[in-house]
Specification:
alpha/beta; 64 helices; 7-stranded parallel sheet; 45% helix
């Protein structure tokens, strides 16, 4: 006979790692205490004991003490009985889940005393239970080891009769009367006992402990069966507790459910949910969908203590619904989202954990949170509700890839909970066409095996009247808006498509007397709430909003909804318009103010926001780069974006990266882990909370503000005493979980844990991994990397001597290189500026043009000391870590990483400080963390874990082989969605046009859209070519405007979106410039290429400017954002340098090498498309650059356009062979464009004959003239050496309205011809190369630059400063002949740069040539060298080809260029037989000999003047102006005051002597240009000299 009063309590402390008993505590019935580790001693202590009691003794203490064999004592376990005896809130004061609450750790005797208190309370509670319930428990739990000891000790007696009847009697009114109990009693008695205990509670917020659910998962299903499954027969319980009408009145005060034209869909859907069925409800806006899931959720919370999880992408809607329920007195709802501050988040989590929440609203992204997963594991989730369910379907108006994770999450959750029955789903959407409904149903059938009941309203809103009003202009639209608002006096919503317009329109309406407030998703939260409440409370009757407004807002008296911008889909329009007339008795009006151009705005927005396949490929490439050494990576979305080559300025960049990651995960390329920082606060070393508090208060490591937080953290850890039946200590000691439940930031928790480790309150934990092999193989390499960055950082800090700095990364890098830091790179500067900003050294702001303002936060001395300390710590850390690696290598430990802790490293620094590098002051945790972060960011050592989790938000594991590429098949769902989005925009536009013509037809159109099969709908309303039209993201009118007049061959190139490389061999006059401009427009508007993903390279700034202007004409201001650069300019960008063409030697080659070496920021080279103009002019370096870009971007497409027959720069290395090499690459194609739209038939025929003599041509097809005019080609062959006179004579005889150009081979010929034409009274304009004279060096340009630089303190030159500088330059140089060049330069820059960035203008001028800004001809005859005429065209062309040497291919190509400039008439003057057989209309031979003209002009360049002469004459020279007359005498030139201002060089003196020998003398001299000059080999610091360049007039 066991004696109930002979008992003892026992508790053991077991090692987490060795699983051995380290300490034993016992407390006997007579008060005796045992505290030792000896088991034999314990057995002697228990010799007179019959009952051995403890908390979790059966499966923990007894197993470790006595093994698996029989135990001679009767075991009494307080753990298993506690949920049965204390199921109600508030729970027993000594219990928290499966643990005894204690302020002491590792004190088994103290735990025995608490277990004894609990045992006495349990026995007392058992005695107070009704007899029937005691019998129920005794019968169900008889013979169960975990309960048997307690039952015997308490004298429990099982029931003799029918246990089922006994349960029905004992729990009458708490469970369904007709539920079948037999199988539960026999098969799941323990789970049934726990279920009945919870059912008997008086507070529906009471919960079954999570350890019970973990061990007896059937409990939840049993509760559902007993209490939440309506019986068919009907019983008192079900007829009340599970009746939807009763509960509708109970919770919401409504007598009836809402109907839709008599359809009781709301009631039917609610009943389906209460019956446990899964459903899809399509209810119109204002149709009461929220109540449809809220009512079942509230009922199930009362019936089975369940939690309903609502997943919605709309965070503002979550808050609105929670607030709306709260106003009704229902406080069951809570939301957890990214907008909550830490304290609010902690309170929300606590409410879910404690059962206060019956409804939990979360965004899909939150399903990645380990905290969310953990709190849901502790709750009985009865239903998942998915709002905006159309997001599952790529055919829906708002497909979201992250929605596709929902099914996997629910499946994993059900598995973890050991659910044998699937959790039901409720899906809601306001509008859905048939294909979307099918997709949603298929998704849940395939993912979870669920069949969805569909509840769809077919009824239209009869109290809404729709109208569409066409508008012509923006002003017309505003006038009609104002008229509509003035016509009624009711609450009005005006919808616009852009956030900026909400403010602009609201301000304008208010100014015009109609008080209005803006509302958009990007507004400050307080402002949004204030504006919304003002509208709801009728303090303002007009709200101007984006579509974000109105979701979940129930204002019944809105009588007018105006779409100032049409919606982007019929679904959205129906939802937004449906916010009018919520009161069914109110007649409301819905207007669209429509212009066809409105659709193009939606297409542009779609193109900006869509995630293209190339962008996902770039993210996949970035992931592969990060996982090259190991399949797992841990980094932030921003780091992935940068590695992918995305510009930081891309809007919503982190969201876009996460979407790309979700797409890759969906296709099986990678697996994204939960957002889990693997950092734990483990190893409590203090005995109790009192000791912890004393040590915290006494420590100098904790400030007053921190103390309270640290105490809260250690208390939480001590309370979470480990037991094997729980879920493990790690889960509750994880940093992010502690932060979430305590309302602290992760930074605060990590900081506190580090300090407690340092103080010894927590054991130190090696939670940082150093992957030394990732950054290089040697300590030397790591040191070199550190030293390289240290030198650059020292330079940057030195640049902040004045405390602030206004610059750009490129400019700062350029200065660093100039000052001797040759290894500096722009991406390194950016890295350091980011680090200095993050760690508080500086404050940094950056504008859209990447100009930055940096302010130092401390004085220079303090900043320098901090830098030096960090550098010392970094050097020590590198040495110490590599030493650790060597020791492990000797010990033959194979590992790819070294694990350590911040505390461990800090102690090592403390020990070695004096010995290594002298006194650097006290080293703190913050110092060490800063140094480690620095080493990680500069790439000296790859570090993960520890405090670094604050900077690395995502954990990703690559699954697929790194050689695989993300394919079009993988992109299918997203691609389908975007195609649907394009069609939806067209469809809503068609609705608007139809509504204007036929109201009833428009209503039928909407009904068919939602009711018909989608393909049948398209076939009905979009016939023939219109099917193709609605597949383009352009309106038909815009498409025709852009591409309607292009040729079939041009459209073939425009439509090619697949070829990796398109090489277009385009003949003269084939429209290649036009083709490229339209291809750029196509890439941006039709091919998913965003402006930051597009790069165009040209060979001249003039070409870049022309393309920018042409593109602006096609797509408007969007062209400003497209990167169109010269090869040299782009390469200077890559090098992070600012340079001129004089400094361009090897810049392209150096850039190509940097790309291959991985030394260029990915954002600068991560392009989807590269477009090359004049590709035949590429040399070896240019081609190497293109290949390097292609190799670094495996998905990059290249479009190269050029004419191999027009390669006239072979002398500088250009070769059309590189076009051919591009065309031979895999996936490349060559296209010939041979239609000539410029020249008449005979001119094309002559050119075709001539070009046959050129070798190694690419084009095989002759050029075809598209003109119907014959034109005329004449060849006049002379025996004379000089042909100036016959050219002049023929030009004079053919002067008229048509444009004319004389082409020469040399500058000298061109200058002589200009003089000869002028002598004949023919006005002419000279275009020639300027002999090395750079536009940047003109005195007029320097004068303007000085004015804008002095007047500018910000990166942008203000309009006021710009206008002042323009006026000052115009005044100072009013008589200068060079002024028109400067004025044209400024005009062109203004046209292509809406914002005038100083650095952009400087670069623009650096790259430009004087001839780029030659003013228009205005009827003048153009005289040009052939080289400078390339790319131009004229009605009449006169070619002067005299004294030809051996006709090389290069020479022949040059003549071919000249011939193909002609449109209608080509006249060739030559003294060679080269043109005799070209099929000219007339070939004439002339024997007459012509002398040189009597007057000639010579233009002097740098080599023609003695440069040393100008030293110390700058002031005199700058007083001169281009065009001023000079006096020539004895090799010297004098100004009007007789001062010598220039001296001819020895070379020029010799040349002039030769002219004098022919009878010529100098008759006049004028100033051509005043330019700045400095010897090439001079240092940049040497002052420039003003140089005078002169025109000399000679006559005989």
């Amino acid at each position: 006979m066991l004696r109930a009063d002979h008992y003892a309590l026992v508790d053991t402390e077991v090692g987490l790692r060795d699983h051995r008993v380290h300490d034993i505590g016992a407390l006997r019935y007579d008060g005796a205490v045992y505290h030792d580790a000896s088991r034999q001693g314990l057995e002697r202590f228990l010799s007179d004991v019959d009952y051995l009691c403890g908390h979790n003794i059966v499966h923990h203490d007894a197993r470790y003490l006595f093994g698996d064999g029989p135990c001679r004592w009767q075991l009494v376990d307080t753990l298993y009985m506690s949920p049965i005896l204390f199921p109600d809130r508030p729970y027993h004061k000594l219990l928290k889940d499966d643990k005894l609450i204690s302020d002491q750790a590792n004190n088994p005797v103290n735990d025995c005393r608490k277990a004894q208190d609990l045992l006495f309370d349990e026995l007392g509670c058992w005695a107070r239970l009704p007899e029937a319930r005691r019998q129920v428990y005794a019968t169900l739990l008889v013979g169960v080891p975990e309960f048997e000891g307690f039952m015997r000790m308490a004298g429990a007696v099982p029931a003799a009769g029918d246990i089922e009847a006994l349960i029905r009697t004992a729990y009458e009114g708490c469970i369904c009367h007709h539920v079948q109990l037999g199988d539960m009693c026999r098969q799941q008695p323990i789970a049934l006992a726990y279920a009945l205990a919870l059912i008997s509670t008086s507070d529906y917020r009471s919960l079954t402990p999570r350890w019970v659910l973990a061990n007896y998962p059937e409990v939840e299903h049993i509760i559902h069966t007993l209490c939440a499954t309506p019986c068919r027969q009907g019983c008192a319980y079900c007829n009340r507790q599970l009746d939807v009408h009763y509960n509708l009145r109970r919770f919401f005060g409504y007598a009836e459910f809402r109907t839709y034209n008599g359809e009781p869909l709301q009631e039917q859907a609610a009943r389906a949910a209460v019956s446990g069925r899964s459903l899809l409800a399509i209810f119109p806006t204002g149709g009461g969908k929220s109540l449809t899931f809220q009512l079942p959720a509230l009922m199930e919370a009362r019936a089975e203590h369940g939690l309903t999880v609502v997943i919605s992408p709309l965070q503002s809607l979550m808050k609105d619904q929670v607030d709306n329920l709260s106003e009704r007195g229902i406080t069951d709802a809570v939301t957890i989202n990214g907008l909550l501050d830490p304290i609010s988040r902690a309170l929300a989590i606590e409410r879910v954990q404690t059962g206060d929440a019956s409804l939990l609203y979360i965004a899909p992204e939150m399903l990645r949170s380990k905290t969310i997963e953990r709190i849901l594991m502790a709750r009985h989730v009865v239903r998942f509700v998915i709002d905006e369910a159309h997001c599952f379907s790529s055919w829906g108006q708002d497909f979201r890839v992250d929605y596709l994770y929902i099914g996997q999450f629910i499946r994993n959750y059900q598995t973890a909970k050991q659910r044998r029955h699937p959790i039901p789903i409720s899906c809601f959407t306001a509008t859905a066409k048939q294909k979307v409904i099918q997709d949603i149903c298929d998704y849940f059938r395939n993912q979870l095996g669920l069949e969805l009941d569909i509840f769809a309203s077919s009824a239209a809103r009869t109290n809404l009247r729709y109208s569409v009003i066409h508008t012509d202009t923006d002003e017309d639209k505003y006038a009609k808006l104002r008229s509509l608002i003035a016509s009624v006096q009711c609450p009005t919503i005006v919808y616009v498509s852009r956030t900026k317009r909400t403010r602009e329109l609201a301000t304008r309406l208010t100014r015009d007397g109609y008080a209005a407030l803006p509302f958009n998703g990007k507004m400050d939260a307080d402002a949004k709430i204030a504006n919304q409440e003002s509208f709801m409370a009728d303090r303002v009757r007009i709200i101007v909003a984006t579509s974000a407004f109105g979701m979940g807002v129930d204002k019944k008296d809105v009588g007018l909804v105006i779409h100032y911008d049409i919606s982007d889909s019929l679904e959205n329009y129906v939802q937004e318009a449906g916010r009018a007339g919520r009161d069914p008795h109110l007649d409301a009006r819905c207007y669209i103010l429509y212009n066809d151009n409105d659709l193009d705005k939606h297409f542009i927005l779609l193109n900006q926001t869509k995630l293209s396949i190339s962008e996902i490929q770039q993210v996949w490439t970035a992931v592969k780069a990060f996982t090259r050494k190991r399949p797992r990576m841990c980094c932030s979305a921003l780091e992935i974006a940068r590695q992918a080559g995305w510009d930081d300025s891309v809007s919503d960049i982190e969201t876009r990266v996460r979407t790309a990651i979700s797409a890759l995960e969906q296709s099986g390329y990678l697996e994204r882990g939960n957002n889990v920082p693997h950092v734990y606060a483990t190893g409590i070393t203090v005995k109790n909370m009192d000791e912890a508090r004393e040590r915290i208060m006494a420590s100098a490591l904790f400030s007053g503000d921190e103390t309270e937080k640290v105490v809260r953290i250690i208390r939480s850890l001590i309370h979470q005493k480990y037991t094997t039946r729980g879920e493990g200590q790690e889960a509750e000691s994880r940093i992010d979980y502690l932060a979430d439940i305590l309302g602290l930031s992760k930074r605060e928790v990590i900081s506190a844990v580090e300090r407690m480790r340092q103080e010894g309150i927590l054991a130190d934990s090696r939670d940082i991994s150093a992957y030394l092999m990732d950054s290089g193989d040697t300590e030397r390499k790591a040191r070199m990397q550190l030293d390289r960055f240290a030198r650059l950082e020292q330079f940057i800090l030195g640049s902040l001597r004045e405390g602030s700095l206004q610059t750009s990364c490129k400019l700062l890098n350029d200065k660093a290189v100039t000052q001797g830091i040759a290894t500096s790179k722009e991406k390194d500067v950016r890295t350091l500026l980011y680090f200095l900003s993050v760690k508080g050294y500086t404050r940094k702001t950056e504008d859209a043009g990447h100009n930055i303002m940096v302010d130092r936060t401390a004085d220079a001395e303090t900043t320098l000391r901090r830098f030096e300390k960090r550098l010392y710590i970094c050097r020590f850390a590198i040495e110490w870590l590599y030493r650790q690696a060597e020791r492990r290598s000797v010990a033959t430990e194979k590992t790819d990483s070294i694990t350590f802790s911040v505390i461990e490293l800090m102690r090592q620094i403390g020990q070695g400080q004096q010995e290594l590098f002298g006194q650097i002051g006290t080293v703190t945790i913050e110092d060490v963390e800063e140094a480690l972060l620095y080493l990680s960011k500069v790439g000296a050592i790859k570090l993960e874990g520890g405090f670094l989790v604050l900077y690395n938000a995502m954990e990703i594991r690559r699954i697929k082989d790194s050689k695989l590429r993300y394919k079009i098949d993988d992109y299918r769902m997203l691609d389908e969605f975007y195609k649907q989005k394009i069609q939806q925009i067209h469809i809503v536009g068609e609705y608007a046009n139809l509504m204007v013509r036929d109201y009833q037809a428009a209503l039928q159109y909407v009904q068919d859209y939602f009711g018909m099969d989608y393909r049948r709908f398209i076939a009905k309303y979009f016939k023939g070519d219109r099917v193709g039209e609605i597949a383009r993201n352009l309106t038909p009118a815009k498409y025709h405007q852009l591409f309607g007049r292009l040729s079939a061959r041009q459209m073939e190139i425009i439509d090619d979106r697949e070829s990796r490389c398109i090489v277009v061999a385009a003949g003269p006059g084939s429209g290649k410039t036009r083709l490229l401009a339209h291809k750029l427009a196509s890439l941006l508007l039709l091919e998913d290429v965003k402006h930051e993903q597009l790069l165009m390279l040209t060979f001249s700034r003039a070409a870049a400017t022309e393309f920018k202007q042409r593109l602006m004409g096609l797509i408007g201001n969007a062209a400003h954002f497209v990167e169109i650069k010269t090869f040299h300019s782009y390469c200077f960008d890559l090098l992070g340098r600012i340079g001129t063409l004089e400094e361009a030697d090897n810049v392209v080659a150096n850039a190509a090498k940097m790309i291959r070496d991985g030394d260029v920021e990915p954002a600068k080279i991560g392009k989807s498309v590269l477009v090359i103009d004049e590709a035949q002019d590429m040399d070896a370096d240019d081609y190497a650059l293109v290949r390097a870009l292609m190799e670094r971007n495996e998905e990059m497409r290249v479009i190269a356009v050029g004419d191999d027959d027009q390669n006239i720069y072979e002398f500088r290395g250009a070769n059309s062979r590189y076009m051919q090499l591009l065309a031979q690459l895999p996936g490349a194609r060559m296209v010939e464009m041979t239609e000539n739209y410029r020249s008449a038939r005979h001119i094309v025929g002559a050119a075709n004959h001539f070009v046959k003599a050129i070798h190694n041509r690419l084009k095989q097809t002759p050029i075809v003239a598209m003109s119907h005019d014959d034109g005329r080609v004449t060849v006049d062959r002379y025996s004379s050496a000089y042909l100036y006179q016959p050219v002049v004579d023929q030009v004079a005889s053919h002067r008229g309205e048509d444009s004319a150009c004389v082409l020469t081979q040399t500058n000298e010929e061109a200058v002589i011809l200009v003089a000869a034409l002028q002598r004949q009274g023919i006005s002419s304009k000279l275009i020639q190369s300027m002999g090395g004279i750079r536009f940047w060096n003109l005195a007029e340009v320097r004068y303007f630059m000085k004015h804008i630089t002095q007047g500018t303190r910000t990166p942008i030159v203000t309009d006021e400063v710009w206008a002042r500088a323009r006026q000052a330059t115009r005044s100072a140089y009013s008589r200068s002949r060079a002024l028109p060049y400067v004025q044209r330069c400024l005009t062109l820059f203004e046209q292509t740069n809406p914002k005038k960035y100083l650095n952009d203008f400087r670069e623009y001028v650096f790259e430009s040539s004087i001839e780029d800004f030659t003013p228009p001809a205005d009827g003048q005859v153009i005289v040009s060298t052939i080289h400078k005429a390339k790319g131009r065209e004229f009605d009449n062309v006169y070619m002067l080809i005299a004294n030809v040497g051996r006709p090389t291919d290069d020479l022949l190509r040059r003549y071919y260029v000249g011939m193909t400039r002609a449109k209608r008439r080509l006249a060739i003057f030559t003294n060679t037989a080269l043109f005799d057989r070209i099929g000219a209309d007339r070939v004439s031979a002339h024997q007459q000999d012509y002398p040189l003209p009597t007057e000639v002009a010579l233009q002097l360049s740098y080599r023609d003047v003695y440069l040393g002469f100008f030293k110390n004459r700058t002031d005199e020279l700058l007083s001169l102006r281009s065009g001023d007359g000079l006096v020539y005498r004895d090799w010297l030139l004098y100004d009007v005051d007789g001062r010598p201002v220039a001296k001819l060089s020895a070379n020029m003196q010799q040349r002039l002597s030769e002219w004098q020998e022919q009878g010529y003398r100098v008759t006049g001299a004028t100033v051509r240009f005043i330019v700045a000059w400095r010897p090439k080999d001079a240092p940049k610091t040497e002052r420039e000299t003003a140089v005078l360049l002169v025109d000399l007039a000679l006559a005989r």
